[in-house]
Amino acid sequence: MLGFFTEPYVRITLTIIVLVVIFIILSRNKRQKATDSLSILQERYEKGELTKEEYEEALKRRGK
């Protein structure tokens, strides 16, 4: 018996699963950072730390 991981389809399947999981984790982190920056911007505007013009300019730079 050569072992479980000697079959090529098993290694390929496991590699694909690992890559998909890594992709999901990385894309989730990017979305959280974007949401966090927007919420920080909104909080600063609500506290009066930013003027309306500064807030709108920051939104434009973010692409919103």
Give keywords.
64 residues; rod-shaped; transmembrane helix; membrane; SHOCT; transmembrane; SHOCT domain-containing protein
Summarize the structure.
The chain is mainly α and 64 residues long. It is 80% helix and 0% strand. Keywords: Membrane, Transmembrane, Transmembrane helix.
> Strand percentage, roughly?
under 5%
Helical/strand content category:
mainly alpha
**What string, H for helix and E for strand, traces the elements in order?**
HH
Mean pLDDT: 83
User: Could you estimate the helical fraction of the residues in percent?
Assistant: over 70%
Q: Runs with pLDDT <50, length 5+?
A: none
Task: Please give the count of helices.
Answer: 2
Task: Give the overall shape, derived from the CA principal axes.
Answer: rod-shaped
Give the termini distance in whole angstroms. Answer: 59 Å
- The number of distinct β-strands equals 0
Largest pleated sheet: none
Q: Provide the gyration radius in Å.
A: 22 Å
Keywords: Membrane, Transmembrane, Transmembrane helix
Pfam families: SHOCT
Protein name: SHOCT domain-containing protein
Transmembrane segments: 12-29
Protein described:
- The chain crosses the membrane at residues 12-29.
- Residues 36-61 form the SHOCT domain.
- Keywords: Membrane, Transmembrane, Transmembrane helix.
- Helix content is 80%, strand content 0%.
- The longest helix is centred in the middle third of the chain and has 40 residues, at 8-47.
- The chain contains two helices and no strands.
- The protein has a domain at 28-64.
- It is mostly helical and 64 residues long.
